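Contributing new complexes? Match this layout with flavin mononucleotide.
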Amino acid sequence: MIRDNNMKILSICGSPRKGNSEAIISRLKEIFEQKGIENEIILLREKNIQRCRGCVEYCNKNLKCLHKDDMPEIIQKMITADGYVFVSPNYFAMPPGLFKDFIDKCSVLYTAYDFTKKPDLSKKRALVITVGTDKEFIDNCRDNISKWFLETLRIKVVAEKSFCSRSELKGNYNDIFENKVNSNIDEELEKMADELCDSLKIVNKAS
Ligand SMILES: Cc1cc2nc3c(=O)[nH]c(=O)nc-3n(C[C@H](O)[C@H](O)[C@H](O)COP(=O)(O)O)c2cc1C
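Output block (do not edit by hand):
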């Protein structure tokens, strides 16, 4: 039973640097905490994530990767969280390799031979946010990530957004909130946080 004050949101940041994605994910954490909602942030740049080597005969059978890294801990947190926030930069209309490695390693969540052993993620809900300089490419990147959630993990994305950012931050990690490129970013993030919380309440009521 999810109550407001024990709803757990897990935020995952796909940027290899401290920058715009991290500033957004931190702002969302402030918003969730003001609502009394627990929010843990995972910075993938601080984690050891080995690249998927495609040895599916092992992971499909054992539901874990043969190569040791921090993914089992991240996947366990994904299973126990109610909702997710994923924020990623756009690198050429795709997420950066770091985030793509994370996506590939999540395959243990859906490729099991024995379907009864697969975790049920159908009641989870997610927000997807991408940042970058070129509007068309950031939208493509966002759509690719959302498609992965919906069609592979079967997780409903309740709100998705792409924000324009500057590449060179010159040490100002808060640039995305101060450069006036996204005039309503604070209101948009507040609205997205509400949408995630409201959708989780609906899921909870129905179950
Ligand atoms: C290798 C690389 C490729 C990039 N490709 C694009 C791109 O194709 N289009 C775009 O709009 N921005 C591109 N960018 C800019 C980043 O999306 C932008 O700097 C973003 O703010 C980075 O997010 P971060 O500050 O959270 O790391 C690229 C940056 C890098 C380092």
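Reviewers usually confirm one structural detail per submission. For this one: Helices lie at 20-34, 56-62, 71-80, 97-105, 135-153, 175-178, 185-206.
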